Amino acid sequence: MAARMLPVVKLATKVTIGGGALYVAWDSGLLGSSEQGSEALQKAKAAIPPAIEEWMKYFGLETQLPNIPKVEFSPVQAWNSGVRQSISTLSEAPTNATKYTNQGLQYLKDLAK
């Protein structure tokens, strides 16, 4: 009986952990818009170093952590530049297709000579 219950308990544990992680991600704004994601990143940057120091003191570890590097990255700007590049490529596609078709036809005509 216990051997049959173990897989069910393992599955329930995994589903609970996964659901909890999904809820925390949704609640903190990670699954929302890019602005909400940026705000969540700023909150995490502010909260993590004090928490690590507190845990190190709790466990009696006295190690100096390196400074967090400053990363100037805006997810909003990166997303917008990707969208702009995709739209630009799609708008140039008919012109490029015509150009490459003409080059291919010219190549075939040169081979036929």
Index terms:
113 residues; mainly alpha; 80% helix; 0% strand; elongated
Walkthrough of the structure:
The protein is mostly helical and 113 residues long. The chain folds into three domains: 1-31; 34-72, no CATH class; 74-113. It contains three helices and no strands. The longest helix has 38 residues, at 75-112. The mean pLDDT is 84. It comes from Cyclopterus lumpus (Lumpsucker). Keywords: Membrane, Mitochondrion, Mitochondrion inner membrane, Transmembrane, Transmembrane helix. Pfam families: QIL1.
- Can you count the helices? 3
DSSP helix fraction: over 70%
Counting structural domains, the number is: 3
How many beta-strand runs? 0
> What structural class results from the helix and strand content?
mainly alpha
The mean pLDDT is 84
Shape: elongated
User: Could you state the order of secondary-structure elements as H and E?
Assistant: HHH
Q: Please give the alpha-carbon distance between the first and last residues.
A: 83 Å
Keywords: Membrane, Mitochondrion, Mitochondrion inner membrane, Transmembrane, Transmembrane helix
Family: Belongs to the MICOS complex subunit Mic13 family.
GO cellular component, one term: MICOS complex
Pfam families: QIL1
Helix-strand layout with pairing:
Layout: H1 2-27, H2 34-59, H3 75-112
How is this structure best summarized?
This protein has helices spanning 2-27, 34-59, 75-112. It has 113 residues and is mainly α. The N and C termini lie far apart (83 Å).
